[in-house]
Amino acid sequence: MARWAQQATVRAAARLEGVSEGLAERSWRERYGRRLPGRPHRLLGLDGFSFRRRQMWTGLWDLERALPVAFVAGEGQQQAELLLGRYGSARTVEAVAMDLHEPYRQAVQAVLPQAAVVADKFHVLALAARALQEVHRQRRRRGNLAWLLQRGAERLGPQERERLMEALLADEALARAWGLKESLRSLYRLPRPQQAEGALGRWLKEAEASGLAPFQRVARTLRRW
After folding, report:
1. Percent of the chain scored above 90 by pLDDT?
2. Nearest to 104 by CA among 63, 48, 66
3. Which of 132, 97, 114 is nearest to 215 (CA)?
4. Does pLDDT of 35 surpass 80?
5. Running DSSP on this structure, what letter comes out for residue 41?
6. Sheet holding 55-62: strands in order across?
7. CATH superfamily placement of domain 39-119
8. Which of 46, 80, 110, 190 is a good FRET partner for 94, with 20 to 30 A between their CA atoms?
């Protein structure tokens, strides 16, 4: 129970375990109370997840310390505002990273308007991965190429790279889609924000002009963020 209380609000932990809030709080204090970080939060993360496949929850994380802060049942703007209002401070929070969920962005703008809203890397790259998967399905190419297409280019062995290049040389649209996926990944390896900003602008234009509907949708989504 102390583990739940470490990650959730005391009320949520008590409800999950079917005990009183007082017992949940005492359990947390006995196990984690002395370890509570003293510094205020600067970089926060919001993300939705399912618990035991029954209900969606919203979690709040301290990204600097890689620690869970709290979570509440539900994934709407109201739940995100509750977490941000309780655990965030307009004096200290500089940025909030999140999945591409509009209610979360609206919650940050309402509660912590000074904080930068950051689209989470994992979810951005997942958009491109799904777009590539869709293009691959549309091309109906034979052979087990899906895992080669999704794997990072830097992780391919010589034989894997050769096999992938053969497939891409035979299908210009698939090659274009794979190149878009890889070039978006490469943005996160650029050393300076100014470089990344310029490269992202070029990527968006390339995706929009690609003639590939899945990547055009990705570009529209990212422009909104």
Report:
1. 70
2. 48
3. 132
4. no
5. P
6. 67-73, 55-62, 43-51, 95-98, 116-119
7. Ribonuclease H-like superfamily/Ribonuclease H (3.30.420.10)
8. 190
